[in-house]
Amino acid sequence: MVLLFITKGKSSRILTFDEEVFFIYLLPPIIFNAGFQVKKKQFFHNFLTIMLFGVIGVFVSTAVITCGSRFLFPKLNFLGLSGQEYLAIGTIFSSTDTVCTLQVLHQDETPLLYSLVFGEGVVNDATSVVLFNAVQKIDLSRLDGRAFHVLGDFLYLFSTSTALGVVVSFISEN
């Protein structure tokens, strides 16, 4: 408000929303940090299982949804989508929502199941966000070395987001 008042209502670059900064550099660490709010002992004890379900699950789900929509949409006369758009649909719908499941589970009564479901849901969401961004950079008309660059971007963003989530969680604990 002060900035708008000082600039007399003229647009300011400070007030522009850069969705890439938000979705790629801010949202994944926030999501990972939320995952670390579960009882840390259970979460880290099951970290590999959670990562397996969350990451591999996203890739499997993305492949199934992408192939299914590629097969089904033309039959429903929904035409004109590119391969990249089918991949984007696959990544968007591969993120699962575990809120309902977590409502019936109690962290104190079933700590293992709760940490697996909660952790998978959080990792799944963060992976979907990063994968969606990577898919947006793919040019399917020419798959060359750029495709490996996109994979590298995905791995970089995923690993740095995970590391930031761990660091933020560690700092908030102390």
Automatic annotation (TrEMBL):
- MF-aspect GO terms: potassium:proton antiporter activity; sodium:proton antiporter activity
Q: Where is this protein localized, as stated in its record?
A: Membrane
GO CC annotation, single: plasma membrane
| Pfam families, A to Z | Na_H_Exchanger
Known catalytic reactions: Na(+)(in) + H(+)(out) = Na(+)(out) + H(+)(in); K(+)(in) + H(+)(out) = K(+)(out) + H(+)(in)
According to the entry, every stretch annotated as the Cation/H+ exchanger transmembrane domain falls at 17-173
- The main location class comes to membrane
Q: How does it sit in the membrane?
A: Multi-pass membrane protein
Biological process annotations from GO: regulation of intracellular pH; sodium ion import across plasma membrane
Q: Where are the transmembrane segments?
A: 21-38, 50-73, 147-171
Keyword Lipid biosynthesis present in the record's keywords: the answer is no
Report the InterPro entries cross-referenced here. Answer: Cation/H_exchanger_CPA1, Cation/H_exchanger_TM, NaH_exchanger
Q: Which UniProt keywords apply?
A: Ion transport, Membrane, Potassium, Potassium transport, Sodium, Sodium transport, Transmembrane, Transmembrane helix, Transport
Q: Does the keyword Membrane apply?
A: yes
What's this protein's name?
Answer: Putative cation/H+ exchanger, cation/H+ exchanger, CPA1 family
Gene3D superfamilies of this UniProt entry? 6.10.140.1330
